[in-house]
Specification:
Length: about 450
C-alpha cells in the first residue's frame, strides 16, 4: 500500500474492476455479433404425416435460422460445409465488400465438404434481406437452403413484435418426397413452379399474435421461380418497405407483386377480437391461396398504426442523371453452340438464355469478361431490355439501384437490388458505382440463371 490511501486503493481497484468488466462486455459483444451456420442435409416433415428425405438447411436440424444483424456493426458468420458437395453462401441485397459476396469463381472458391469459410462484413443498410447458396444453386435452394437475414436499424420504430415470413414452394409428391426440381422445357420458358407452398417451411401456419398489437411482418420470397401477388386480409396493414428500402409513404398491403428475391415489410395492426381471421394470401384466379393465418390472442394492447415512427432511409447514393452513362443489356435467347461448362457447382446441361448474347451458366468458371466495366464513383443508367415473352427478376449484387422508367408502365421510384422485368419490357434504372469489385448480375428465376441468364459487372476502383 505504499503511498496509497485506503480511498485511492479502493478507487484503483474499482477502476481496474470496471475496466475488466468493460473488457468482458466488449468481448461478449464481439461474440454476440458472431454467427455460425452449418450447411447440412436432414430429413424434415413438410407435408402432414410425411418426412421429406434429403432436405438441405443452414443448420443440422430444422429450417434455416433467421440471422439478425445490426446496421453499421461488424459481424462475422462462420460457415461450415457439412454437405457432401461444395457450396458457398451469398447475402442477397447486402452492399458489402466484394470478397464477402459469396459467388464462386468471381469472389471466392467454393467451400468444399468439411471446409469452413468465415464471412466478415458490416451491413450499411437496415431492412429485410435473405441468404442462399450460389453453388449448385437450383438443387440446394430446391432442397431448402434459403434463410432470412434481418438488419436492424438503431432506431426502434415502435413495433411490439417482428415476424419474419420466409415464403417459398417445394416440389414434393404426395408422399412428401422431392420430385424433379425443374423441367427443361419450362426452364426455356417461364420456369418450373413448386407444388407445395410454405411459410417458414410450414404449410399454412398459424401465428398467435397479441390482440391490438403492432407487428412488423417481414416477407421474403425466396422461391426458385414463382412471381406472385400478395395481400394481408382481415386487418389494417400497410407496406412500409420494399426490398429493404422504406417507402416514402406507406401503402395498403393489398396487391404486392413479389418476384423471387424480393421482400416487403408490412406494418400489421392485429385486430382486437379473437374471432378475427387475418390471412396472408397469394392472389390466384378462382380464389386466393391462404399462406398463413394470424390469430389475435388476449386483451387488446390498443395500439394504433399512427404510433409507428417512419423508417429511416438507407444511405444509398443518388445517381447524377445528367452525367450518367447509359449501358445497354438485352435479356433473351442464347445463341447456338453455347454448351455449358461442367462445374463442381453444378450445371443443368442446357443453355437457353443470355445477356447481350453471352450465356454464362451461373456458378461455373468463366466468362472471364464483364458485361460492362464501370468506374467507381460514377453514375450509370442501366437500360434493361427483355426481348422474351417471360418475366425476369433481374438482380445485381453489391449495389442498389433506383427504378426510373419503363416502356410498359409507370414505375414507382423504388430503390432495390432486384427488379422484375415484365415480358418485352424495357426499363431504365440508375445507380452510383460506389462499390468496387466483380458483381454478379442475373435473373433470379434460378432455372434461367443456371441456363445462361447470368453475367457480371466490374466496378473499377
Ligand atoms: Cu440472391 Cu446472385 O443472388
Ligand atoms: Cu444477391
Ligand atoms: Cu429469368
Amino acid at each position: 500500500m505504499l503511498g496509497l490511501s485506503r480511498r485511492e486503493f479502493l478507487l484503483g481497484s474499482a477502476g481496474t474492476l470496471s475496466a475488466f468488466a468493460a473488457g468482458g462486455f466488449a468481448a461478449r459483444q464481439a461474440q454476440a455479433a458472431e454467427h455460425a451456420l452449418t450447411l447440412s442435409s436432414l430429413d424434415h416433415g413438410i407435408l402432414p404425416d410425411t418426412v421429406t428425405k434429403a432436405m438441405m438447411s443452414f443448420a443440422a436440424y430444422g429450417p434455416p435460422p433467421v440471422l439478425r444483424l445490426k446496421q453499421g456493426q461488424k459481424t462475422a458468420i462462420e460457415v461450415t460445409n457439412a454437405l457432401d458437395e461444395a457450396s458457398v453462401v451469398h447475402w442477397h441485397g447486402l452492399r458489402i465488400a466484394n470478397r464477402m459476396d459469396g459467388v464462386p469463381y468471381l469472389t471466392q472458391n467454393p467451400i468444399e465438404t468439411g471446409q469452413a469459410f468465415r464471412y466478415e462484413f458490416t451491413p450499411p443498410d437496415a431492412g429485410t434481406f435473405w441468404y442462399h447458396p450460389h453453388c449448385n444453386t437450383l438443387e440446394q435452394i430446391a432442397r431448402g437452403m434459403t434463410g432470412m437475414l434481418i438488419v436492424e436499424d438503431g432506431e426502434d420504430p415502435g413495433f411490439d413484435k417482428d415476424l419474419p415470413l420466409n415464403i417459398r414452394d417445394f416440389r414434393l409428391g404426395s408422399d412428401g418426397q422431392f420430385i424433379d426440381f425443374y423441367k427443361p422445357r419450362n426452364a426455356a420458358r417461364g420456369g418450373t413452379l413448386g407444388t407445395v407452398s410454405t411459410v417458414n417451411w410450414q404449410v399454412e401456419p398459424d401465428f398467435e399474435l397479441e390482440a391490438g398489437s403492432l407487428v412488423r411482418l417481414r416477407l421474403a420470397v425466396t422461391d426458385l421461380t414463382r412471381v406472385g401477388t400478395y395481400a394481408v386480409e382481415g386487418a389494417q396493414a400497410l407496406v412500409i418497405a420494399l426490398d429493404s428500402n422504406p417507402l416514402p409513404s406507406p401503402v395498403p398491403a393489398a396487391d404486392i407483386t413479389l418476384a423471387p428475391g424480393q421482400r416487403a415489410d408490412i406494418a400489421l395492426r392485429v385486430p382486437d377480437g379473437e374471432a378475427a381471421d387475418v390471412r396472408l394470401v397469394r392472389r390466384k384466379s378462382g380464389g386466393d391461396k391462404v399462406l398463413a393465418r394470424f390469430r389475435p390472442a388476449g386483451a387488446s394492447a390498443r395500439r394504433d398504426l399512427r404510433e409507428l415512427k417512419p423508417l429511416n432511409p438507407n444511405p444509398v447514393p443518388e445517381a447524377d442523371l445528367n452525367n450518367a452513362e447509359v449501358l445497354d443489356f438485352v435479356f433473351g435467347w442464347s445463341p447456338e453452340g453455347n454448351a455449358p461448362r461442367p462445374s463442381i457447382c453444378g450445371s443443368l446441361g442446357y443453355t437457353f438464355w443470355s445477356i447481350n448474347r453471352i450465356a454464362w451458366t451461373g456458378d461455373a468458371p468463366g466468362p472471364l469478361d464483364p458485361l460492362a466495366t464501370l468506374k467507381q464513383g460514377k453514375s450509370y443508367i442501366l437500360r434493361l431490355r427483355n426481348e422474351s415473352p417471360n418475366a425476369h427478376p433481374i438482380h445485381l449484387h453489391g449495389v442498389s439501384f433506383r427504378l426510373l422508367n419503363s416502356n410498359k408502365r409507370k414505375l414507382p421510384p423504388l430503390v432495390t437490388d432486384t427488379a422484375l422485368l415484365l415480358k418485352e419490357e424495357t426499363m431504365d434504372v440508375a445507380l452510383v458505382a460506389d462499390n468496387p469489385g466483380d458483381w454478379a448480375f442475373h435473373c433470379h428465376v434460378i432455372e434461367h440463371q443456371k441456363t445462361g441468364l447470368t453475367g457480371f459487372l466490374r466496378i473499377e476502383g
